[in-house]
Amino acid sequence: METFHKLPEHVAIIMDGNGRWANEKGLPRIAGHKAGVETVREIVKTSLEVGVPILTLYAFSQENWKRPKEEVDLLMELLNFFIDKEVKSLVKEGVRLKAIGRIDALPPYTLKKLKEAIELTRHNRKLTLNLALNYGSRAEILDAVRGLLTDRVNPEEVSEELFTSRLYTAGIPDPDLLIRTSGEMRLSNFLLWQLSYSEIYITKKYWPDFTKEDYLEALAEYQKRERRFGDVCGKKEVAG
Ligand code: FPP
């Protein structure tokens, strides 16, 4: 296995292109999502192998509720199935499951499964697998603002650190690397605050076609990036 001198501490992925993958094969969209779950497994496994400590996957956005009911139901079923099937190996492999988003609005059965898995894996430290579910970044920012107002926090005390601690991602460092599959050049309401200084890697491959080798290539590309955080070039890096 390839070793990297500079590994991102946190990789975030917009898993895109399941529907197009299926369409091009003359299959129903759901076949694309099913194949997408296999890619999720492979990328989790590879993250463990190379030692990426935090992986955030955009699994279901707030906007995804607009899709046909059958597709939404199937995505929830896939999530239930994934948790059921994987929870034992997540525990065994040292994976801690977390979720970000307005998860209380998920179907009750999915929410129950998710909470159980989060509880069962809470002591694991090798990899944090953070699933964005019913997630929208603007909603996250609004929820943080509402929390600050409800707690009557003095405006002068509102620093970047305090605000960060009110987001769903509280306690999780910002992503160092964002990967988006299927070639789209958008953030799609994903981690808008947290991605401010992240490196962005876009591949044309659809998510079901994204392989371990493609992931390793993205990590290799990250090695070459010089992160400046607004400073001049050529200086020793402050982070990541
Ligand atoms: C984007 O493809 C993908 C999604 C909206 C869902 C991603 C979900 C999975 C990979 C499966 C469930 C996840 C886990 C963690 C078990 P798209 O449908 O928008 O593709 P398109 O843009 O080609 O239509």
Q: Any overview of this molecule?
A:
Helix 1 packs across helix 2, helix 2 packs parallel to helix 3 and helix 3 packs parallel to helix 4. The chain has a 6-stranded parallel sheet with strand order 3-4-2-1-5-6, sandwiched between helices. With 240 residues, it is an alpha/beta fold. It has one domain: Undecaprenyl pyrophosphate synthetase (3-Layer(aba) Sandwich), CATH 3.40.1180. Strand 3, helix 4 (108-120) and strand 4 (127-135) form a beta-alpha-beta unit. The protein is built from 7 helices and 6 strands. The site of farnesyl diphosphate (FPP) has 18 residues, from helix 1, helix 2, strand 2 and helix 3.
**How would you describe the oligomerization state of the chains in this entry?**
single chain
Shape: globular
Spatial strand order of the main sheet: 3-4-2-1-5-6
DSSP summary, beta strand count: 6
Radius of gyration, rounded?
Answer: 18 Å
Q: What is the string of SSEs from the N terminus onward?
A: EHHEHEHEHHEEH
> Per CATH, what is the topology?
Undecaprenyl pyrophosphate synthetase
